[in-house]
Design goal:
The N and C termini lie far apart (about 30 Å). It is globular and about 30 Å long. It has a five-stranded mixed β-sheet. It has a single domain, classed as Beta-grasp domain (Ubiquitin-like (UB roll), Roll), CATH 3.10.20. The protein has helices spanning about 25-30, 55-60, 65-70, and strands at about 1-5, 10-15, 50, 80-85, 95-100. With about 100 residues, it is α+β, with helices and mostly antiparallel strands. The chain binds FE2/S2 (inorganic) cluster. The site of FE2/S2 (inorganic) cluster has 14 residues, from loops.
Length: about 100
Amino acid sequence: PLVTFITHDQAEHEVHVTAGTTVMRAAIGNGVPGILAECGGARSCATCHCYVDEAWMEKTGVADEVESEMLDFVMEPRETSRLSCQITLSDELDGLVVHLPASQF
Ligand code: FES
């Protein structure tokens, strides 16, 4: 699937990854700036915060309880906030657009 990351400065980074890759890995593996992912995807650092584009929120689903608790620690949380390590890309999500925050902490 194709994912487009839009960084805080409005730069677009398009990345193609295989299905099963998380949004976090797609960014880290392709040098997209703005995601730190200090815990490596263990849902315990919240430095992989992203905002799912509103048009995609229905398809990505919502954060579960544990993820929601982690989202309490991010800078500038919004309705669209997610941890990017908790979104797994599939053909269903081909074309996904996520926005990256100005800072992860
Ligand atoms: Fe640490 Fe997502 S990479 S919570």
